[in-house]
Amino acid sequence: MSTQVSGVIVASLTPFREDGSLDKAALRSHVDFMIESGVNGLFCAGTYGEGPMMSLEDYRDVSQAFVEAVHGRIPIIFQAGAPSTAQAVEQARVASQAGVDYIAAVPAYYFKHDDDSLVDYYTALSQATDKPIFVYDNPGRTGNPISPALFERLIRIPRIVGMKDSSDSMVHFEKCKMVAGSDFNMIIGSDDFMLPGLVTGARGAILVLANVLPKLFVDLWNAFCAGDMAKALELQFNVLRIRAVFAKGPYVSTYKEGIRLLGRNAGYARRPLRPLTGKEKSDLESGLRKVGVL
């Protein structure tokens, strides 16, 4: 299997029923829509996939469900990072056994960790799976940023082939890109920075709004690849306008509601992530009409 990843990668939502159980039918439908829209990969069980709230059994069920739904059509990157090394290792193992293509992992979180601890953590993950691994830098969630100096140590670990950078800092992305070199899979992890990331050397982008509007990002990617920077910039500005509408509602549920407004089903978010109120639903619909989504 190639270790090269590029293009539009959806930070996939995980469709749950209202009681918190996995909705496999909605998951299959969602995956099919993404692939038919032309996306290049799925990033599963991350922030918007509600991975941090999953049990080990959930990891097994959800990874198997995504593998069955995708059926080898595009690569699956499955997030397995956890507060403890043992938990991350077990999650990586069950996802690997399910047949995902790549493992991703945020640094161990909640407690503060020094660089040596995080090198040990990623080394243990590397030894637990034969899958290529993505480091997932998301300091706003984990409290443990991956500095360029730490990153330089991590990329020497066997099987680490890429990084999802959700630092929200283009300077940080550029510094890590300089360290990684040209063959490493540097992926920008923010919808807002897709085009700037591509310009500065990202192979692709992992995107949450692509759950709602995958074609928007496929068009942006194609414009960039064709050298049509004016169109790419116009589409990037459109992303910013639409994202601002989704920022006004409760986290994951707002994206699922946006998908519902477009006539599809992404299920419910698990508690304590709450559904939208009636007013929030009305505001979302109004906002999406103003930016031309509805």
Number of domains: 1
Write down the CATH class: Alpha Beta
The CATH superfamily is identified as Aldolase class I
Task: Determine Rg (CA atoms, Å).
Answer: 18 Å
Summarize, please.
This protein has 294 residues and is an alpha/beta fold. The chain has a single domain (7-228), classed as TIM Barrel (Alpha-Beta Barrel). Helix content is 47%, strand content 12%.
Characterization of this structure:
This protein is an alpha/beta fold and 294 residues long. The chain has one domain (7-228): TIM Barrel, CATH 3.20.20. Helices cover 47% and strands 12% of the residues. The protein is built from twelve helices and eight strands. The protein has helices at residues 24-36, 56-70, 85-98, 115-128, 139-142, 148-154, 170-180, 194-199, 214-225, 229-246, 251-261, 278-290, and strands spanning 7-11, 41-44, 76-79, 102-105, 133-137, 160-165, 185-188, 204-207. The chain has an eight-stranded parallel β-barrel, surrounded by five helices. It is globular, with a radius of gyration of 18 Å. The N and C termini lie far apart (40 Å). The mean pLDDT is 97.
Comma- or semicolon-separated keywords:
294 residues, alpha/beta, TIM Barrel, 8-stranded parallel β-barrel, 12 helices, 47% helix
Q: What's the helix and strand layout?
A:
Elements lengths: L6 E5 L12 H13 L4 E4 L11 H15 L5 E4 L5 H14 L3 E4 L9 H14 L4 E5 L1 H4 L5 H7 L5 E6 L4 H11 L4 E4 L5 H6 L4 E4 L6 H12 L3 H18 L4 H11 L16 H13 L4
Parallel strand pairs: 1-2, 1-8, 2-3, 3-4, 4-5, 5-6, 6-7, 7-8
Helix pairs in contact: 1-2, 2-3, 3-4, 9-10, 11-12
